[in-house]
Design brief:
The chain is mostly helical. It has a single domain, classed as Hydantoin permease, CATH 1.10.4160. It is built from 18 helices and two strands. The structure holds phenylalanine. The site of phenylalanine (PHE) has 15 residues, from helix 1, helix 2, helix 10 and helix 14.
Length: 458
């Protein structure tokens, strides 16, 4: 009784791996991972993050791809159909809604930061950073960039337009070939940056220590929640992006192998980014806890002082922008498929509607860095960028884990054993049972534990 997707299918398993990796690898790895690691004290945070990838991220990703491939529609209609099909309450569709809403909220601020990356291509290429001091690059970012809402708005608009164009054309065309070439290049360039970090002597070891020597006294429950949220965010889980991509996956592809490839690539990029960035921070007596500006201050400083820095710098921000692009389209895709299915809209019309509303909300994030900036404290970390930070915390730390929790519960407790076993293609042996044990008990328990601790209930 296999369904077919009305939106098309990937040309191969490999195309799916590339697209899903494109979705996973993005600002989350290179911009967000280093800065929240810095805010939350380093090593212990990284350890919890890695544990979350393994015990929560990987099993949930398998579940999400599986549900997508079985339902073959937008997350909302997929959850509705799968629930009804297995004799359960159609209200499971609200899980799809939670995801679509999260995707829309995330994209609104994601696009603003992706805009920074676009702007930094031009700044690097024109040699603005050459020879600049630490104070200089900081002021270039804070005073000469973030303080100007019209500049941020321009780049945010450009990035949203780029996202709309690709999604309107259908995620398959163009995307596959772009990712195939860009991901390996990004990886190589990160290695160059790691090479530069190694040349920083003492500071390189200091950077490694900061990232890999766990000091649990530096970690709060809020930090644990942030690490767990980051595992969802970085793997694009809990909001239906991977579910939608899974809905275009052919029936013959192996879900488990695919998942491991994506998770490994994603984690590799995040760790490399951290290894490249922290030594630069320590070598220049900067603060690892500088917040969202971290890579936009530390990396330009490095580019300003390394041989070939103008070239490497521009190339780096080109690649970062591409990585953000292949992620942003997966944030918009769930809502667009839903609009197409439900209102019979043309893809291009649906994309325009969804894109414009997202763009509008993004304006609130643009002003969060200047006119409307306000401070608040979250889990012991001072956040300075009002609405932007609130949207980030609400989606990453609450909505995505909540979505993941229900995805796990549905896949393990509501879907029949036969259905998940057939779909995963792991056979009926130990590997399948391990997955089932993880999504049935470990994942939900871990998410609940973190939530309850955060709320001060246990
Ligand atoms: N995983 C992407 C990143 O790390 C962000 C993303 C989150 C994309 C959720 C899709 C869904 O940049």
């Amino acid at each position: 009784m296999a369904r077919k997707s009305m939106h098309g299918e990937w040309s191969s398993r490999w195309a799916f791996v590339l697209a899903a990796t494109g979705s996973a690898v993005g600002l989350g790895n290179i911009w967000k991972f280093p800065y929240i690691t810095g805010e939350n004290g380093g090593g212990a945070f990284v350890l919890v993050y890695l544990a979350c990838i393994v015990v929560i991220g990987i099993p949930v990703m398998m579940a999400e791809i599986m549900l997508g491939r079985r339902g073959r529609q937008s997350p909302i209609n997929t959850m509705y159909d799968l629930a009804v099909e297995s004799g359960h309450n159609p209200n499971w569709k609200w899980l799809g809604w939670l995801g679509v809403l999260a995707g829309f909220l995330i994209l609104s601020f994601y696009s603003v930061v992706a805009g920074w990356s676009l702007a930094y291509i031009f700044r690097s290429a024109t040699g603005v950073f050459t020879g600049a001091t630490a104070d200089g690059v900081e002021s270039l970012f804070l005073d000469r960039f973030l303080a100007h809402p019209e500049t941020l708005l321009f780049w945010h608009t450009l990035f949203m337009a780029m996202t709309i164009i690709i999604v309107a054309r259908g995620v398959k065309s163009g995307l596959e070939s772009a990712v195939k070439f860009l991901m390996p290049t990004l990886f190589l360039l990160l290695l160059v940056m790691v090479g530069y970090a190694m040349s920083q002597g003492e500071a390189f070891m200091q950077g490694l220590e900061f990232m890999f020597r766990p000091d649990f006294s530096a970690l709060t429950w809020g930090g644990v929640l942030t690490a767990m949220g980051q595992a969802f965010f970085t793997l694009s889980l809990g909001m239906g992006a991977i579910m939608v991509y899974g809905s275009y996956l052919s029936h013959t592809a192996s879900i488990s192998r695919t998942t491991f490839t994506i998770a490994a690539a994603d984690t590799g990029v995040a760790l490399l980014a951290g290894i490249a960035i922290f030594p630069i921070i320590f070598a220049n007596n900067m603060e690892p806890s500088a917040g969202p500006g971290l890579i936009f201050i530390s990396l330009p400083l490095a580019f300003g002082h390394m041989p070939g820095g103008v070239l490497f710098g521009s190339l780096f921000f080109v690649l970062l922008s591409f990585a953000a692009w292949t992620s942003s389209i997966s944030l918009l895709e769930p809502v667009v498929t839903w609009l197409v299915e439900t209102f019979n809209l043309r893809r291009i019309t649906a994309t325009l509607y969804a894109g414009i509303v997202t763009w509008l909300l993004g304006v609130a994030s643009v002003f969060s860095f200047n006119e409307w900036a306000f401070e608040f404290e979250f889990a012991g970390v001072v956040k300075e960028n009002g609405i932007f930070d609130i949207l980030d915390i609400l989606t990453t730390n609450i909505m995505l884990p909540l979505g993941g929790l229900f995805i796990a519960i549905f896949a393990a407790w509501f879907m029949s054993r036969e259905a998940s076993r057939d779909e995963l293609g792991l056979g009926d042996g130990m590997r399948y049972n391990l997955w089932r044990f993880l999504v049935k008990f470990v994942t939900p328990a871990a998410i609940l534990l973190v939530f309850l601790n955060m709320l001060g209930i246990i």
